[in-house]
Amino acid sequence: MPAPCAREQPRVPGERQPLMPRGARGPRRWRRAAGAAVLLVEMLERAAFFGVTANLVLFLNSTNFNWTGEQATRAALVFLGASYLLAPVGGWLADVYLGRYRAVALSLLLYLAASGLLPATAFPDGRSSFCGEMPASPLGPACPSAGCPRAPSPSPYCAPVLYAGLLLLGLAASSVRSNLTSFGADQVMDLGRDATRRFFNWFYWSINLGAVLSLLVVAFIQQNISFLLGYSIPVGCVGLAFFIFLFATPVFITKPPMGSQVSSMLKLALQNCCPQLWQRHLARDRQGARLLADQRSPQPGASPQEDIANFQVLVKILPVMVTLVPYWMVYFQMQSTYVLQGLHLHIPNIFPANPANISMALRAQGSSYTIPEAWLLLANVVVVLILVPLKDRLIDPLLLRCKLLPSALQKMALGMFFGFTSVIVAGVLEMERLHYIHHNETVSQQIGEVLYNAAPLSIWWQIPQYLLIGISEIFASIPGLEFAYSEAPRSMQGAIMGIFFCLSGVGSLLGSSLVALLSLPGGWLHCPEDFGNINNCRMDLYFFLLAGIQAVTALLFVWIAGRYERASQGPASHSCFSRDRG
């Protein structure tokens, strides 16, 4: 097996090696220490992120702000969308101006400041300082008939402050997400390809460990004790992550910004797609054309030949990443329709009810027990926490010894298959649930102030679909991170990682758009007489439609990935992962 190509790459001018002294075994020990510090920072940052998102709708819908459910949901979607769609911005800033180390440090600092807004507005004095006094609800005449129009919802209290804070928080989270991943991989790259692969396994494990800690502890405190304490914990997590990151600086490898070829890529794309428009541009900028002809030799950065080579790599990478978008449509169902389906299955009683925030809990009618809504996501997270170490310590070494370890693209195709089976299982379960509903075999469950008619099937019947979507994460998302990092040109690694996360956000938005489309009159998800229930909807057909979309795009992905791997096996292969698959 050839030596890892990371060792063949020349050191970047301005790259800073660790300051700690190193003996004969020093490099490996300090590289592992640096990687462990990155994993700890990621775990704390994800704990803070899930601590913010888990009960954000409930926080805005509480008596602190009195936002309507629609207003609170829209704010949560804006924050989640920003945390994914702004990822290329943070990657581009790191590539061009800041470098990954400073980009992560500044993003954590912004994260700390923005996250402090939530606990600051969770108590009366803080809300009045930031937002002013809450306006009194206007009193109007009672509606004389059932068909009279409803009064428009009032403007949400403190909306400008909260939206500004959430957008800044989304920018910080997206920048950390796009840069910390590649920064951590930089720390272990000198240890070889296998170390980089294992780093991405444990990086994803750290993400889910942070999610478990947040959902188990923070969500329960927010829902049953107080939002002030519940939102103070994420602030503490970010502060601790920032301290650990600064404390570990002496063992980090830091690289200067290399510049980004994004603008050069756009020029080359314009030149190839619209040659007439490109000629007009050159005619308006003769000096720029002359500089291009002279290969811009006096200026640092990539040459035109390197721009063209990187553009060709980008053209090959993007179709692979784009065909992964339907997988993200399926993946994000576990945070939307899977949860909605679970609310219409029998939910067991777990904890004694606390009067605080009782309207924010799932409560069985006539019972005094509640279960936090956010805990419905734990099944997927626990699966990842169990399977990632098993895969890293047992399965991958065994396949490596037998020379059967699949490539990253082959793992991604396998992940798509498990995502397909997950949504199929969800559709079959929904068919069975509707069978009980149509035979009037229901149990009543009160969620907040809404009464739901649920099927007598236990919510534990959802375990198979959560198990399958968790397995799909291990085979699709983790190798996807590995692929985006290893195949990207060095000067575009931050931007490419940002595009990878951005496309996952696009998949979430497409899934939401499909739900909105099917919720129109005549659609499968249009339930005008259900009052919050989905018993007159055909969500099973929606799941089967998603499965069909996933199946078609999975076949397209296999074809594109096959062409990519065949092209990467040639002598001009760009990536060390393509030349050396072990």
Automatic annotation (TrEMBL):
<keyword id="KW-0458">Lysosome</keyword>
<dbReference type="Pfam" id="PF00854">
    <property type="entry name" value="PTR2"/>
</dbReference>
<feature type="transmembrane region" description="Helical">
    <location>
        <begin position="201"/>
        <end position="222"/>
    </location>
</feature>
<dbReference type="GO" id="GO:0015293">
    <property type="term" value="F:symporter activity"/>
</dbReference>
<feature type="transmembrane region" description="Helical">
    <location>
        <begin position="72"/>
        <end position="94"/>
    </location>
</feature>
<feature type="transmembrane region" description="Helical">
    <location>
        <begin position="374"/>
        <end position="391"/>
    </location>
</feature>
<keyword id="KW-0967">Endosome</keyword>
<keyword id="KW-0813">Transport</keyword>
<dbReference type="GO" id="GO:0071916">
    <property type="term" value="F:dipeptide transmembrane transporter activity"/>
</dbReference>
<feature type="transmembrane region" description="Helical">
    <location>
        <begin position="541"/>
        <end position="561"/>
    </location>
</feature>
<feature type="transmembrane region" description="Helical">
    <location>
        <begin position="466"/>
        <end position="485"/>
    </location>
</feature>
<protein>
    <recommendedName>
        <fullName>Solute carrier family 15 member 3</fullName>
    </recommendedName>
</protein>
<feature type="region of interest" description="Disordered">
    <location>
        <begin position="1"/>
        <end position="27"/>
    </location>
</feature>
<feature type="transmembrane region" description="Helical">
    <location>
        <begin position="228"/>
        <end position="253"/>
    </location>
</feature>
<keyword id="KW-0399">Innate immunity</keyword>
<dbReference type="InterPro" id="IPR036259">
    <property type="entry name" value="MFS_trans_sf"/>
</dbReference>
<keyword id="KW-0571">Peptide transport</keyword>
<dbReference type="GO" id="GO:0015647">
    <property type="term" value="F:peptidoglycan transmembrane transporter activity"/>
</dbReference>
<dbReference type="GO" id="GO:0005765">
    <property type="term" value="C:lysosomal membrane"/>
</dbReference>
<keyword id="KW-0472">Membrane</keyword>
<dbReference type="GO" id="GO:0015031">
    <property type="term" value="P:protein transport"/>
</dbReference>
<comment type="function">
    <text>Proton-coupled amino-acid transporter that transports free histidine and certain di- and tripeptides, and is involved in innate immune response. Also able to transport carnosine. Involved in the detection of microbial pathogens by toll-like receptors (TLRs) and NOD-like receptors (NLRs), probably by mediating transport of bacterial peptidoglycans across the endolysosomal membrane: catalyzes the transport of certain bacterial peptidoglycans, such as muramyl dipeptide (MDP), the NOD2 ligand.</text>
</comment>
<dbReference type="GO" id="GO:0140206">
    <property type="term" value="P:dipeptide import across plasma membrane"/>
</dbReference>
<feature type="transmembrane region" description="Helical">
    <location>
        <begin position="313"/>
        <end position="331"/>
    </location>
</feature>
<keyword id="KW-0653">Protein transport</keyword>
<feature type="transmembrane region" description="Helical">
    <location>
        <begin position="34"/>
        <end position="60"/>
    </location>
</feature>
<feature type="transmembrane region" description="Helical">
    <location>
        <begin position="161"/>
        <end position="180"/>
    </location>
</feature>
<dbReference type="GO" id="GO:0070434">
    <property type="term" value="P:positive regulation of nucleotide-binding oligomerization domain containing 2 signaling pathway"/>
</dbReference>
<feature type="transmembrane region" description="Helical">
    <location>
        <begin position="497"/>
        <end position="521"/>
    </location>
</feature>
<keyword id="KW-0325">Glycoprotein</keyword>
<keyword id="KW-0769">Symport</keyword>
<feature type="transmembrane region" description="Helical">
    <location>
        <begin position="101"/>
        <end position="120"/>
    </location>
</feature>
<dbReference type="GO" id="GO:0010008">
    <property type="term" value="C:endosome membrane"/>
</dbReference>
<feature type="transmembrane region" description="Helical">
    <location>
        <begin position="412"/>
        <end position="429"/>
    </location>
</feature>
<comment type="similarity">
    <text>Belongs to the major facilitator superfamily. Proton-dependent oligopeptide transporter (POT/PTR) (TC 2.A.17) family.</text>
</comment>
<keyword id="KW-0391">Immunity</keyword>
<keyword id="KW-1133">Transmembrane helix</keyword>
<keyword id="KW-0812">Transmembrane</keyword>
<dbReference type="InterPro" id="IPR000109">
    <property type="entry name" value="POT_fam"/>
</dbReference>
<dbReference type="GO" id="GO:0045087">
    <property type="term" value="P:innate immune response"/>
</dbReference>
